[in-house]
């Protein structure tokens, strides 16, 4: 559950006028509090003048600070935010250890509480001043000088108080006395509400859930790995961030990518264009979507490929926060045809820069790799990735060992048919167990939809306890359909209706309905799209 905090003035009866948030400065200078004498009388904590009823207009690159009690989930939420917003993570406790050579608790024992607080304030001030943009900053401290620095930073940046239910905090801190835990919560709430401008309540997930949010189904899709239970929290927090950074976190999966069809070498959707730009070219981005439902003569056709949009959505939905894409993340693509091109493009879109291709015909795999190596050198594709940063590796046999210098893949996408074609039998593909050795599992996506229980999908479901999530063509099709709907109409797709229609009307290669088997997916539609 995400929420915006109430103004402290409302809770305390104060009548201070809220300050106006101006443009974000490139460099932030905070008033030093480290030199304040310790022997003077301390005045009560003043109300936070930056608290307000509406969400401030923060710059899209403004750094975000997460504060709260230990066990509230700050570090986990920081990973989610950093992955979604493409920002770096700074933990001020780690910065303190780097600066002093010891943890805060050890430093306090050796040097005393006053000196520890002074050094904490100095470290936090340096972190905030040097990183006003591009970072997610985690601060676990609850000291008076820290409070003052956070209050200043909250004038221009989001400072989020992360809360959690008292039972979860009590369990994490191993506090046996409930009243002590309650008093700690009360005190921390008063402290943090005086120096933050936003609140997020981190809901604890106590039930064991399947990937799609339900109890274990008969196929064994239970997500026993604890980090998979974080998916609901991730959805809630990303929605919260979309309120804080509306321009930065808008999901472009519903929009078009002007160079996608060119990059993949194919288009599967043709959109009639009835209004051109003054220079006679086809509009792009929001201008394209704004004009698709106009009446009038067709002046041009716009080709788009929505395969990559669907694949990208599946990757994002399937990856747990523990497997958030990082510099060393590897993806594996099975096949080298048209859908494999879409899969490569989708991986590049989510930030995966290490991609392995398995294909029995080496020439086809090398042709695919060459296509993207050339593409990434072109100027218009520089935002996608730098050619020097992207690494490809080709496998032609499943007997080959996974290179020891590479991390095992956490994203595996099969782009080959799952059913017989003519006299060619279905591949019946399974991954070598050694290739599925990623420590926290990952997502395995079978793009075919005519067979729902392929050997690869069954292998993924058997690995659920190790963090593997299985997804198939029935996860992909709605994402493609929603993208096409929005490209044609310029309106948001009725996602729940479209998902339900696909599942209720699905027939396999033999014309058989699997409605009973798909009931768990039908029940989870509301949660997926909420």
Task: Give a quick precis of the structure.
InterPro entries: NAD(P)-bd_dom_sf, P-loop_NTPase, SDH_C, Shikimate/glucono_kinase, Shikm_DH/Glu-tRNA_Rdtase. The protein has 530 residues and is α/β, with parallel strands linked by helices.
Please describe the topology of this protein.
Blueprint: E1 2-3, H1 8-12, E2 64-67, H2 74-85, E3 88-91, H3 92-100, H4 104-111, H5 113-130, E4 135-139, H6 144-153, E5 159-164, H7 166-173, H8 178-193, E6 198-202, H9 231-244, H10 260-264, E7 269-273, H11 285-290, E8 300-304, H12 307-318, E9 330-334, H13 338-350, E10 354-358, H14 362-375, E11 391-395, E12 411-414, E13 442-446, H15 455-462, E14 468-471, H16 473-489, H17 495-504, H18 519-529
Parallel strand pairs: 2-4, 2-5, 3-4, 5-6, 9-10, 9-12, 10-11, 12-13, 13-14
Antiparallel strand pairs: 1-6, 7-8
GO biological process, one term: chorismate biosynthetic process
Organism: Trichoderma citrinoviride
GO molecular function: 3-phosphoshikimate 1-carboxyvinyltransferase activity
């Amino acid at each position: 559950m995400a929420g915006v905090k109430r103004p402290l003035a409302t809770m305390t009866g104060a009548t201070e006028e809220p300050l106006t948030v101006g443009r974000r400065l490139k460099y932030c200078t905070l008033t030093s509090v480290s030199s304040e004498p310790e022997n003077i009388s301390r005045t009560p904590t003043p109300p936070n003048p930056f608290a307000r009823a509406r969400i401030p207009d923060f710059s899209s690159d403004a750094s975000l600070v997460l504060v709260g009690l230990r066990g509230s989930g700050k570090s986990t939420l920081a990973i989610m935010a950093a992955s979604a917003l493409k920002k770096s993570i700074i933990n001020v406790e780690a910065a303190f250890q780097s600066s002093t050579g010891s943890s805060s608790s050890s430093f306090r024992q050796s040097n005393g509480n006053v000196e520890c607080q002074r050094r904490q304030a100095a470290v936090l001030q340096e972190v905030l001043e040097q990183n006003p943009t591009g970072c997610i900053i985690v601060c676990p401290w609850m000291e008076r000088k820290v409070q003052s620095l956070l209050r200043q930073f909250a004038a221009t940046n989001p400072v989020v108080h992360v809360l959690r239910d008292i039972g979860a905090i009590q369990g994490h801190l191993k506090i046996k006395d409930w009243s002590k835990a309650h008093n700690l919560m009360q005190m921390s709430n008063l402290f943090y509400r005086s120096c933050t401008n936003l609140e997020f309540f981190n809901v604890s997930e106590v039930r064991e859930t399947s990937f799609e949010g339900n109890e274990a189904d008969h196929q064994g899709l239970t997500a026993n790995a604890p980090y998979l239970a974080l998916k609901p929290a991730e959805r809630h927090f990303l929605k919260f961030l979309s309120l804080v950074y509306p321009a930065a976190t808008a999901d472009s999966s519903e929009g078009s990518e002007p160079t996608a069809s060119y990059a993949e070498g194919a288009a599967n959707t043709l959109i009639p264009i009835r209004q051109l730009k003054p220079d006679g070219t086809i509009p792009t981005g929001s201008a394209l979507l704004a004009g698709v439902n106009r009446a009038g003569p067709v002046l041009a056709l716009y080709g788009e490929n929505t395969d990559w949009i669907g694949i990208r959505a599946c990757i994002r939905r399937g990856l747990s926060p523990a497997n958030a894409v990082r510099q060393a993340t590897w993806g594996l693509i099975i096949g080298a045809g048209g859908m494999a091109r879409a899969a490569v493009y989708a991986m590049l879109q989510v930030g995966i820069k290490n991609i392995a291709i398995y294909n029995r015909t080496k020439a086809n795999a090398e042709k695919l790799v060459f296509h993207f190596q050339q593409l990434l050198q072109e100027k218009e594709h520089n935002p996608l990735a730098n050619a020097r940063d992207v690494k490809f590796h080709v496998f032609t046999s499943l007997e080959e060992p996974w290179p020891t210098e590479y991390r095992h893949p956490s994203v595996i996408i099969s782009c080959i048919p799952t059913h017989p074609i003519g006299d060619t039998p279905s591949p019946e593909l399974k991954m070598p167990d050694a290739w599925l050795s990623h420590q926290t599992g990952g997502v395995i996506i079978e793009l075919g939809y005519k067979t729902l229980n392929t050997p690869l999908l069954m292998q993924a479901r058997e690995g659920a306890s190790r963090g593997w999530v299985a997804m198939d063509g029935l996860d992909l099709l709605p994402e493609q359909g929603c993208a096409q709907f929005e490209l044609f109409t310029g309106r948001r797709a009725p996602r729940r209706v479209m998902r339900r229609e696909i599942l209720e009307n699905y027939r396999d290669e033999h014309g058989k309905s699997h409605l009973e088997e798909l009931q768990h997916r039908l029940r989870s539609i509301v949660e997926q799209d909420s």
